[in-house]
Design goal:
two-stranded antiparallel ribbon; alpha/beta; 41% helix; D-Maltodextrin-Binding Protein, domain 2; globular; nine-stranded mixed sheet; 420 residues; 2 domains
């Protein structure tokens, strides 16, 4: 069974830019719903359309934002009094901030009143609890796996990765797949500049989270990534990646990257882009590599669907939240190759039946331990920014890894003391 595991600005200008993509209904209740990449990804559009079919008395006005701007824009909208009824909390830091500022409504009373079956959420439910209160239903339950280019492996005569690959084997394989110069160069791996790309190394040690656990857990992984990028040169270095602003999606789909560890959300994008003729990469998936001698685990992110504490349309908002974060919504997400927060056997069957899903990839979606990148904690946002800053300094050679870890510990204590 799977355990899955804040600056205000020019409010008016940003609100004007947020054009609703679904017009209000002539009659009945109209809910305002916010999400990101609604038109780009389509699956949320399918969800909303299906909800409106089942609830003809409720119309949904959708506010669509770019994924990279979503948390900041939502913060500004809520602070400006925009009456968004239902929306997604994109990550644990956003979620924790919403709870800290009392901007979203706890759902325990509604869950109890409707006798909501929570069995399908598994450990995802624990990851949306703060002080025993549930402030959102798990809409998505993504976690990290390893994507690889089968054609590149075949070209170099290198065996495909397995579901038991270690990080040591990952490094050796990356070196074996690296060749050439300039535009024709192939890299055995791509390591994103996101902080979570480095968090995984430490959290896989299974010795604590990044709020209260020892930051020494990150040492082995930071050293591994530094060696791969600057010594082996089998992945582009951190500074180059960051200065280019390159996106993993386009880079992997160019066909010259052998391995990429990334979230399960990328499966849907690969299938979609192939249908659009944007790539012809013969890709596969396995579980993310692991540390030798340690029980396998990965990292993930539960995306809750939440209700604005100031909504005046509570019952309709609750109906939408239950749909998006429940069994019915999960079925639609699975059909679109998105890992839902509510999981049962039908979800895995749906994945396996989607054209374009690797025939040998089902086992990659079965994992025992999924750590949250950050726990749902009021200080997750501040601590996350701090740890990211120290990782950047270490990975660009501006600070030793040992010094960065020591500074993380010192700065964590300062943040805790300032926010007591």
């Amino acid at each position: 069974m799977r355990r899955r595991l804040f600056t205000f600005g020019l409010v008016g200008l940003l609100l004007i830019a947020l054009i609703p993509v679904t017009q209000a209904a002539k009659a009945g209740t109209t809910l305002k719903f916010a999400c990101w990449d609604y038109e780009l990804n389509q699956y949320d559009k399918i969800l909303i359309q299906e909800f409106e079919k089942r609830h003809p008395e409720i119309k949904v006005e959708v506010f669509d934002m770019p994924a990279s701007e979503y948390p900041d824009k939502m913060l500004i909208m809520l602070a400006g009094g925009e009456d968004i009824d239902v929306f997604y909390a994109k990550d644990p830091t956003m979620y924790g901030g919403l709870v800290l500022r009392k901007q979203i409504r706890p759902l325990n009373d509604l869950i109890a009143r409707d006798k909501l079956d929570l069995s399908g959420y598994g450990g995802n439910l624990d990851n949306v609890k703060i002080d025993d209160q549930i402030y959102g239903l798990p809409y998505r339950g993504d976690f990290w796996i390893l994507f690889y280019n089968k054609d590149l492996f075949d070209r170099f005569g290198v065996p495909y990765p397995t579901n038991n690959m270690t990080w040591s084997e990952f490094r050796k394989t990356a070196k074996a797949l690296t060749s050439g110069e300039g535009a024709s160069r192939t890299y055995g791996a791509y390591i994103h500049t996101w902080a979570s790309t480095y968090f995984v190394f430490g959290l896989q040690k299974n010795i604590g989270d990044l709020v209260e656990g020892p930051y020494s857990m990150l040492k082995d992984g930071l050293e591994l990534a530094y060696q791969i990028q600057t010594v082996d040169k089998s992945a582009a270095d951190y500074a180059t990646n960051r200065s280019m602003g390159a996106h993993y999606r386009g880079l992997f789909e160019q066909g010259n990257i052998g391995m990429l560890y990334m979230g399960t959300w990328y499966m849907q994008a690969l299938v979609h882009d192939a249908k659009e003729g944007l790539h012809n990469v013969n890709w596969g998936i396995v579980r993310i590599p692991q540390w030798e001698g340690v029980e396998h685990s990965t990292i993930g992110n539960v995306t809750p669907v939440v209700i604005n504490a100031k909504t005046k349309k509570m019952e309709a908002a609750w109906e939408l939240a239950k749909f998006l974060g429940g069994k019915d919504g999960a079925a639609i997400l699975a059909e679109n190759m998105i890992m839902p927060g509510y999981v049962d056997d039908s979800v895995f069957k749906s994945f396996a039946s989607v054209p374009g899903f690797p025939s040998d990839g089902a086992e990659a979606l079965v994992t025992n331990i999924v750590h949250m990148e950050w726990p749902a904690h009021p200080l997750s946002g501040l601590l996350g920014k701090m740890v990211d800053e120290e990782i950047q300094l270490a990975m660009t050679g501006n600070k030793s890894i040992d010094q960065a870890i020591a500074d993380m510990e010192e700065r964590r204590q300062e943040i805790i003391e300032l926010n007591q």
